[in-house]
Fold these 2 entries.
Entry 1:
Amino acid sequence: MHPITRSATPDQPTPAPHRTRRRLLAAALALPLILGAAACGDDSSDGGSSSDKVELSIFWWGADKRAELTDKALALYTTKHPNVTFKKTWQANQGYFDKLATLTAGGNAPDVFQIDDNFIAEYAQRGVTLDLTPYTSDGKLDVTKFPKSLKEYGEVDGKLAGVAMGENTQGLVYDKTLLDKFKLPAPTTGMSWEDFVAWAANVSKVAKVPGTQDPSAVYQALWVYLRQNGKDLYKDNKIAFDEADIAKWFTLWKNARAAGATPTPDVIHEGNDSSVSKQLVVTGKAGTSWVWVNQMPELKKNTKSELGVIAYPGDPSAQWARASMYFSVFRGSPHKDAAVDVVNFLANDPEAGKILGTDRGLPPNLDVRKDVSATVTDPSMKQTIQVQDELGTKFGPTSPSVPPKGHSKVKTELVRIAEEVTFGRSTPEAGATAFVTAAKAAIGQS
Amino acid sequence: MTMAQMPVRPTEPAPPVPAAHRRGRVARRRRREDIAGYVFLSPWLLGLLGITAIPMLISLYLSFTDYSPLIPVTESNWIGLDNYRRMFTADPQYWHAVRVTVTFALIAVPLKLAAALGVALLLNKAMRGISAFRGLFYLPSLLGGSVALAIVWRSMFNGDGAFNSFLSIFGIEGKAWVNDPTWALPTLMLLAIWQFGAPMVIFLAGLKQVPIELYEAASVDGASAWRKFAHITLPMLSPVIFFNLVLETIHGFQGFTSAFVLSNGTGGPVDTTLMYTLRLYNAGFVELNMGYASAMAWVFLLVVGTITVVLFSTGRFWVHYSDSEER
């Protein structure tokens, strides 16, 4: 592009610059390889002994409150183990898994990281997470006080890939202040889906606020609905529903929209697209939203209204105790023993449990949970515990196993296809066909 | 630009030396100077190699594998053309993303150029405070493809956003524009068009280069304003138009940030803002299928490259260089 061509004059038959250039090229090519090799060369040492200075990197997503509580709990660990310090990183949910994947690709995954059921199977099957099973048998990691289903929800292919840091279940949250203002009855656990839709349509009519967010794109609502119909979302790494089930689900909400029970499609999309703090029940754009019960404090923080929470409609025994999130240990961590000990501490230590409260869900250790329930002061945490304890008595005997690899893609496909139906660009039947195909492709089922 | 063109040669003549030694000395000195040249070049060169060239070559390799960021590259499997095959035959979302991107580029790029040229013509007048106006119009582009701007846009065109408040003055009830499948992409285009500052400044510079005598001569001949524009301004400006067209086309195809922010990274609602780069990002970072994402990136590179070449080859027919003696 520049008219500078002096170096190319033909009367200079000097091979030297080319050789230099080639050598430089080789050096430049080799440099990152060498650096890369140096970076991943060291993963055999183990700072397990209690006197070595260890700095553990730990990474989680969440809001300010979670950071504050986790900071405190980790500081407590450092007080008890002065040789262990932490390099803490945390951020909002959006972008968290992009960052985690990038760190992992660079061989720099944190020693301890938070993960949820969207990705735990993927990370476990790719060998990123440390298999914690051996630590449970030699007592370094105690999961004996966990509810059985909660421990099992961390197992992928028979290996313990993550330790549950909280238990939650589906929660239908409603704006109590709004309902009281118009003297409307609150929804109740166990009401049928049809009754709920009728209730919501009535709220829309009387209160002039759409009765409920349309949950047709909310995977955990569909999941409960499927289980109530004797199906499931997955079984043995395959989808466990058929087109008819999905068509029924989409039709239910098509009728609800026609009855005026939900907001307009653009607002429904906004609800589907928003973080916890912007759920429609919080922003006043709908009377109810479809969440997880441990999200109550975060929801409450963002609205002046009083909130109530019940189970999703239909038979509540289809709900289950889900691990809201886990801490996993990086298999390539140079400080595996120390990392496992920290995870053990966060899950089982009574003092740490009191600090962490129910921010990640109900404490996984049942003894700790009892302690926390007795002493918790935050009213919305209290409400979470009370509701979940009550629902816990209604759970059925079977709980689903952790979703397979590709689950997060299934979720986004459900949002896309359910919204196609919401916006009237597709019929419930065509949407059902499309979703079954897309879900199979996402989890690699032929 | 290739490395062969880099200016590394000194201009000063070598001092007189006996002829026998001269050759070897000169060669040695040249070599030394070559090395010095490369050393001075090295920041750029390392950047080019380390940040662009090597990763690109690696991504070409990865596009033939099932690489996921969660596993070491060495453990990924060579799967030949499978990624490419899947892209063209088995991924409806891929073609959807292509359609969205082409629609976006076809509409947003010409409109943006028209807006840039129009405003440049207005700002090419001699009047008081014109530089302040120029600055003002350039302001949106200073913020560039920034995330902050996209967030502002998102809240402006939301259901309870500023735009709807404005509409309500006229008794019009707006909708959540960014959340509506019909309006999400136009909203995105509007954001791109609004950021016309960079091509505008280039147009402005081009307009200043048009010899005033041409207009004077045309005026003497009684040409209307439109004829002056069509027969003097446009042809004289054609190299600048061409430059802006090429640049903005490439930009248009690469649009990512605003689409990502406006749709929370999903390309929604119902994939209506699923730009090619966004689909690529999701394939790599959400589905963790980096091999597939690499294949998408290479097809993208080839297609955008081809479009650029085609644009260049049409340039011959409509781009007029007034300094043609140099060509």
Note: The domain at 83-326 of chain B is CATH 1.10.3720.10 (MetI-like fold).
Entry 2:
Amino acid sequence: MTATAVLPDQLGPLLHRITGDEKHAPSAHSTLDVLWVLYDRVLRISPETVDAPDRDRFLLSKGHGPAAYYAVLAAKGFFPERWLDDLGGWDSPLGHHPDRVRIPGVEVGTGSLGHGLGLGVGVALGLRAQGYSRTRTFVLLGDAELDEGSNHEGIAYAAATRLPITAIVIDNQSSTHGWPGGIAARFPGWDTSVVNGRDRDRLERVLEPRHDRPNLIVATVERKGS
Amino acid sequence: MRESFIATTTELLDEDPRTALVLADISAESFAPARHRHPERVLNVGIREQLMASVAGGLALTGMRPYLHSYAPFAVDRAYEQLKLDLGHQDAGAVVVTIGGSYDASEEGYTHQSPGDVALLDTLEGWTIHVPGHHDEVPDMLRDAARHDDRVYVRLGVQENSRAHRDAGRLQALRRGKALVVAVGPMLDPVLEATTGLDVTVAYTNRPRPFDAEGLRALAGREVVLVEPYLAGTSAAAVSAALEGLPHRVLHLGVGRTEVRRYGSWRDHARAHGLDAPGLRASIVDFLG
């Protein structure tokens, strides 16, 4: 697969501010296009509505390597771009894993893998119980993160209760033992689609429609380290 | 106590739309009527305790007040990281209500026992811990917890005192004497029996966290005995901090670390750990000299 490094102009410089690495291509960030499509075209959330009870929820379960997440949030105005210049510093709200208490727009603090989907299931249940039927919940995971057993508790329960939640798995083939038979096969009872994680129009087409049961999107990108 | 929990939580679900209950099969049958009335707020995730805790965190993030419930070894020991991260690190709260602490599930064996639940929660920030000694102490604890969003642990036991002492969050002195013996939750009756005729103050609390440091300083003489129904020494740091600067000797009694590879009843295990009245008396008399 060819990486299409056509990005909205501002993301490249923002990524460079975080990583300090001029040579590293934006395509090194596996989540970048999915995150951009979500925040630019799909999620009903803005800096003004970060506390609105009926806002859409996006949970980055793969809190590991959040540079692309920070770049997108800064580009969308959730926090000042200058925050990007001091990643992991004592006075910086931005760490190597995101902290919801410190960063506007961040719904959950993650980093230890395998927590976001369970939290997302709880969020979706809480929204449903309170009648926010228009509000959607999205969780982004990595294919290696799927190794954590806690995910599989959430996958099975969401299917059993027909919970309208969207999980996106970024597949850059980083799971040590892989997923023979495909990742989608691990999500029985879910609607599933497998798409090119760099094709923003295609991503929008699978992220936009609402489903009346859990929905999995496997976003395939270049193999990690390739 | 479990019946008080079921009755009170069922009432809370009826009264307050913020209340949610998350179960992992344990006690699900008892909550069937509540689940029938509130299917979107009474959630049984199946035998998935990690998910139970994570779901509670997610519910809290949307503004609900989740109660979750299972055996202590599954709700705390197994799901410890979920309690740490999906509640604490998210700055979210929940009410964790357990059965099966220490050796209550004596016939089930060590897989179903948690003597270390309170010690584990002591490694985390901001948990209020209730250890009721009587079923009539349970409803207030659950109702108070519905009025805020903090992290609360309620440890229900099968061993009960003969009478309830409501409002025993702070230390209540029930008998006056020279040395101080503090009994936590269901340890009160055995302590009262064990100290009959001894010159000791017996004080009771059913809310060991936050520990009533002020009350302890006010009641303590030079000798203090703490009797807890979970791992011996769990409150050692709290007692030491409370008595800082005061010359004192302390004895911590509770459940031992050595696994008792026997079944039998909770009474058998209490005896094995020296937490029945004769065992306690022997330890206390030996300590006081």
Note: Residues 11-220 of chain A form a domain with the Rossmann fold fold (CATH 3.40.50.970).
